[in-house]
Amino acid sequence: MKLELWIYDDKKYKICELPEYEKGEYLVQISENEKVLLECRKEEWYFPKETCVEIKRLNHQIFEDRQLRREDLWEYRRKEGKKVAILVFLKQQKLQSYQYYHLDETKEYLIGSGAECDIRYNVAGMISKKHGVIKEEQGRWYLIDCSKNGIYEKGERISPRKRMQYGESFSIFGLHLIFLEGVLAIGCRNHEKLKMDLTEVIESQNARTDMMVTPHVKMLEQLRNMQKDREERYKESVDFVLFSCMMKTELDTILQNWRKNNCRDGIKAQIGVTEQGKVCELDLQEWADGPHGMIAGMTGAGKSQCMQSIFLSLAIRYSPEQLQFVLIDYKGGGMAEQFAAFPHVAGVLTNLEGNLLHRGICAMKSEIKRREQRLSREQVNHIDDYNAITRNEKLPHLCIMIDEFAELKSQLPAFAETIVQVSRVGRSLGLHVILSTQKPSGEIENILLANSGFRICFKLKDKEQCNRMMGKMLSWAQKPAGRGFLIDGKEMEVTEFQGAYTGHKQQVVSKGKKKTSWDESREEQVCFVQNRVYKALRKEKICSAVPLWMPPLPDVLKPDNLQLPAKSIVMGLCDETEKQKQSYYVINPKGNGNLVLAGKEGSGKTTFLVGFVSQCIKLFDPSKCWLYLVDFDYGLLSEFSAVPHVGGAVTSIEELKRCISLLERELRKRKDSQGKLKCEADKATILLIIDNMTKLREKAEETLLERIYIILREGNVYGIYIILTAGGFGQREIPSVWRKYLPEKIALNMNNEEMCSFFGEEVKVAELKDIPGRGVVKIDGQLVEFQSIYWEKDCIHTIEIQKNRKDCVGAKKIKQIPKELSYSKFMEYIKTEGAEERNKKIFFGIRDRDGEVIAREVSRLDSLLILGKEREKREKTVAFFLKQALQRNEQVIFFGGMQKEVWEKNDLLHCCTTKEQYYDSLMQVVRILKQQKQKLDNAEVLWMFLSDAKKCLEICRQGMYVEGDIEKMLEELLLIKDKRKIVLIGTCESAEVRALRQHPLFRVFSDRRDGIYVGGGVGEQNYFPFPFIEPSERRNLQNRQMGMIHVHGECSLIHVPFV
C-alpha cells in the first residue's frame, strides 16, 4: 500500500511518498522549513483547542491565509478510502500537544517491538502518576525518538534507515510520546538532546525551546522492567472470571445457578471487589437496589466495563426464561456486538442502525402494553405474582441497558422519552433500566435519577455532577481505571469498589503454583462465558429469548423461502412495527380499487409491475383476468405480449388510443348488458397497467387523458381497474382530479416530506434505506415500511409456460395496424368478415383510434368525393375503391387517365379519356339500362369514377357531339338512380371545390358531402365539416398513409390501403 501525501509549502504543493507497511498508520512531521504535520487515520478528525491556527475540514485555512485545494485532499480519499488530517505548527511554537486516534504499531519508528518491549508500560506508569491521565487496562504507550542521533532500544542504537523521499533525502526528527487509544501526544521540533527530565517536559505544555533534559539514552536505561510493571498494573484491576466466585462460569455451576435462582427472590449482579476484598453486589429488585440504576463517569473511567460485568454476572446466574436483556449502545456498538449472541438478549440497538430505532420505540411501548394486559387478565399488579400463578405464559424480567445515554437523548429525543416512560411504569411490570452517561445532568436525567434505585459513579470532571449523583464530593486522586462508588437503593450507603474487567484472555492456573498466567492463544472471557452459557442452554433444553422486535426487512426479498398464500397476489413484506409483526402485502384490485406506485428513478417501480403481471398470469385463468400493458419506460412489460392473459403491450400513443377505445367499448357493454353484481361474478377482471405516467402526460393530448380518467372514475364498478406508476404525486405526474380515484398508494424511496404530500398525512416511519423496492404502504389505516418481492426467475418461468397455451380463451386483443398498409395486408386484416358480408359492403380503411374496419353497405352509398393537396395520395385512394368495385364483378366506367400497367384487362372496366369515349360509354350504358333491363337487376351496381372531377366536367361542357349533349346524357343517366344503383366516386384538389360547386352535376357530391380527405392541409379545406382535429392527427395525415373520412355523419381518422 503506497500513500502519497500532499504537503503545502511556499505557496505550492509537494508530494512525499511514505514507505510501505503491512499494517499500521502513519505519523509524519516535516522538517523545520516546512509547516505541516500530516497524519493518516481511520475515522475521526481531532484538533487541539489550544491551537491558534484556524483549521476547517475540507476547506482548510492554512497558515498565513494560504488555501489548501479541495481536490488535493479528496484525491487521497478516493484512492485509499481513508482521511488525511493536516495540522499546522506556529512559527514560534516548538512544543504542542495533539489528540490522535488509534495508531497501530509502526515498527519503523518504535523503540522495542512485541510483548517484550521494556518501554511502553513503564512510560504509561509515569504519565499516569505525573500527568493524571487515567486509562483503561488495555491502553498502550509508545516512546518514539526520531532524532538525528538515531533510534535506541534498551540503550543500544538502531542503525538509521532512509524513511522518506522528498526531493532529497532527509530525516524525520523530534521526540513524540503517543498514546494509542486516544488522548496524548507530545511533539518536540528540536533535534537536540533534551536537558530536563521527561516527566517535567510532559507537565510543561508550553515549554520553551531552550529547555533541555538529560540524554534520552540514559533515561531509557533507568526504566524498570516491563514484566514487573505489568504485574503491578493488574493488581489494580479485577479479573471477571476469577472474581466471580472461583470460576463459576463452568458449565455445572451455570446449570446449578439457573435451576436454583429465581428473580422473585432477587436479581443479583456482581460488579467488582471492595477494599476489604469482598464481592461488591447489587440487586435489581425494587425492594432492594432496583428497579433501575444509573452509571456515570468520564471517558475511560470504566462505565462500559461495569455494564458488561453486570450483564455477564446476571447471564451466569439466571436463565433466559427468568431474565432477558435489551442492549442499546450509543458508543459505536462495541458492547452490543459483544453480547448480541447471548441467548438472553431480546434486542440490540446501536447508533449505527438508525432505521432500527423507530422499531425499538414501538417495541418498548408494545411490550409495556402486553405486560399490562397480562397482569390485568390475571387480576394481579406485579410480575412476580403473575409468574407465581401462571404455568405456561410466564413473563421474564427485562433489563434495558443503555450505554452513552446522553448521545441517545441528543440524537433521538423520542426514544429517550420512551425510556422515561419505562422507568415510570416498569416497576411492577418487571422492566429494569440501567443506563450510563458522561454527564448526569438535564431534565430527563433528573427524572431517571429520581426513579433510580442504585447509582454507580466513576470519575467525573465536574464536581457538581458528582455531588448530584452521590450526594457528596468524592476523590479519585491516584486511583486506577475502574475504581468507582456504589450507592445502594436501600440504605443509601456509599461503597468504594474496583470494577471487574472482562477483556482479558482466559487465564490458566499453573500446576504447583498459586499464581495464574495469561494464555494469549485462548479465547477472551466474554466468548468463554458465552460458550458455557450456550452449552447450559442446550443441556437444559431452554429456548433463547424471543426477539422483542422483528428483524429488519431484507434488502433483497426473493420468493424462494417464503410461504405465500394461494390465489393471492403477494407483492412484498410489510413491517408493522407497532404491532410487532411482519405481514405479506397483498394486492386485490376488487377490494382495494385503483393503485398508484410512485417513486424516483431506480426505485423499483417497473420491477414491481413485472412481478405483479407475472403473478396475475400465474394465479388466474386467461378468461378471468385480462391485462392491458402500457409501457412508456424500459419496455420490460412487452415481454408478456404473447401471453393469452395480455390483450396488448402498448408502447405508442396510437396504440394507447386503440387500447382505450377497446376498454371504452367493454365498459359500455357492461353498463348496458349487466348489473353490478352479475358483472363481478361472470365477467373477467380487466387491469390497465401504465408504467411511467409522467412520460405519458408529456406525450398524450388532454382528450386522451380525459378518456383514461373516465375509465379510472367509472370502471371499478364494472370490474375495470387501473394500476399506474409515476415519478411522484405532483400535478406534473398525476392530474389532481385523478387522485380521488387512486385509493391504494405505494411510495418507493421517497423522503418524509414527499411521502407526507403523497399520502396526505404525517408519515411516522424511519428513514428508508436507498435500495430498490423499499417503500411505504398503508395497512389497516397505518403507514408501514414495505419491501417488494423480486420475482425475476418466476417471471421468466411464467412467460415460457403461458405463451404457448392454445387451449384457452384469453383477453380481447388490441388491434395491431400494419405500418405499411397494402391492399393484400388490408384484406388479411378483414379476413374475419365472411365473403357474403364483404360483398355487401364497400371498405374505407381502418379507424385509427380503435383499429376497427370502416365499411358501409353499398345500398346506402351514392357518391364519394376524395380531396387532398397531394395528387399521388388521391389517385392511390381512388385505385383502392376501383379495385374493390372490380372484385365485385360489376360495371365500372372510369373517366380520366390511369396507369394501365397497374390493371389487367377487364371486360367490366370502360376507360374514357376523350369526349368521344365519354359519349360512347354513356350511350351504351343508357341503352342497356333502358332496353335490356334484364341485364341489370336491382342487386347490381354501376360504378362511375371521375379521376379528375374538374377535367371531366369541363369535357362534358364542350357541347354537342354526334347524337347529343354529354352533359344531358349524364343528367339522364343520374335520373335512373331511383331504379338502378349508381355510385359516383370523384377526386379533385380541395382548392378546386369552390369552382366545381357551380356545376349542376356537382350536387351529386354536395348533397351529403360524403368522402375522404387525404394528405396534409386538412385545416385549409371547408368542404367537409370536420370537428376539431388533434395536432398529432394532423401530423399523421401529412406524414403517413392516412385520411379523414366523413361518411353518413361520422368523422374519423383512418388508415387507407393505398393501391
Highlighted features:
1059 residues, alpha/beta, Rossmann fold, 11-stranded mixed β-sheet, 10-stranded mixed β-sheet, 33 helices, rod-shaped
If you had to describe this structure to a student in words, what would you say it looks like?
This protein is α/β, with parallel strands linked by helices. The chain has four domains: 4-234, no CATH class; 242-510, P-loop containing nucleotide triphosphate hydrolases (Rossmann fold); 593-802, Rossmann fold; 823-1055, P-loop containing nucleotide triphosphate hydrolases (Rossmann fold, 3-Layer(aba) Sandwich), CATH 3.40.50.300. The strands form eleven sheets. Strands 16, 17, 18, 19, 20, 21, 22, 23, 24, 25 and 26 form an eleven-stranded mixed sheet that branches. Strands 30-29-38-37-36-31-35-34-32-33 form a ten-stranded mixed sheet. Strands 40-39-50-49-48-41-47-44-42-43 form a ten-stranded mixed sheet, sandwiched between helices. Mean pLDDT is 69; it is low at 1-235 and 507-522.
Structural class: alpha/beta
Query: Low-confidence stretches at least 5 residues in length (pLDDT < 50)?
Result: 1-235, 507-522
- Architecture of the largest domain, CATH level 2? 3-Layer(aba) Sandwich
The CATH topology annotation of the largest domain reads as Rossmann fold
Principal-axis shape equals rod-shaped
